[in-house]
Amino acid sequence: MTVNITFPDGNKKSFDTPPTALAIAQGISPGLAKKSVVAKVDGELYDLTRPIEHDAKLELITRDKPEALEVIRHDAAHVLAQAVQELYPGTQITFGPANRDRLLLRLCAR
């Protein structure tokens, strides 16, 4: 199965097996792989380790792009929630929307 990836500059690359965005980034540059936070595959956010199983347009979102901050905040909220639940079992957690300035996490301990 050949997977054709198109990059934002129009360049294309073919892969014999479904690649991950992380593997593609590492193939371009180890520094790019380190800076990458998430991938956009045909406009949809993909985890860097999720295989790309179809021909697609790929954009790597690096930590210096505004979109990266939203993903980092979202992930941080989940890590914080997991830590709170481990420290205080039974705590109910509600995630609110992250915006430019903050993330929202509501905690209710019983």
Outline:
By secondary structure, this protein is of the alpha+beta class. The protein has helices at 21-28, 30-35, 66-87, and strands at 3-6, 12-15, 36-41, 44-46, 56-62, 92-95, 105-108.
Protein architecture, described:
This protein has 110 residues and is an alpha+beta fold. It has helices at residues 21-28, 30-35, 66-87, and strands at 3-6, 12-15, 36-41, 44-46, 56-62, 92-95, 105-108. It has a 5-stranded mixed sheet with strand order 2-1-5-3-4, sandwiched between helices. Strands 6-7 form a two-stranded antiparallel ribbon. Strand 1 (3-6) and strand 2 form a beta hairpin. The radius of gyration is 17 Å and the shape is elongated. The relative contact order is 0.14. The mean pLDDT is 90.
Write the layout of secondary structure elements.
Elements (H helix, E strand, L loop, with lengths): L2 E4 L5 E4 L5 H8 L1 H6 E6 L2 E3 L9 E7 L3 H22 L4 E4 L9 E4 L2
Parallel strand pairs: 1-5
Antiparallel strand pairs: 1-2, 3-4, 3-5, 6-7
Brief descriptors of the model:
single chain, 110 residues, alpha+beta, 5-stranded mixed beta sheet, two-stranded antiparallel ribbon, 7 strands, 33% helix, 29% strand
Residue share in β-strands: 25-35%
Mean pLDDT metric: 90
Structural class assignment:
alpha+beta
C-alpha termini separation? 53 Å
Shape: elongated
The number of distinct helices, counting runs of at least 4 residues, comes to 3
- Unreliable stretches covering 5 or more consecutive residues: none
Secondary-structure element series? EEHHEEEHEE
The amount of helix comes to 25-40%
β-strand number = 7
Please summarize the sheet with the most strands.
5 strands, mixed
| Rounded radius of gyration (Å) | 17 Å
Strand order of the largest sheet: 2-1-5-3-4
Oligomer classification: single chain
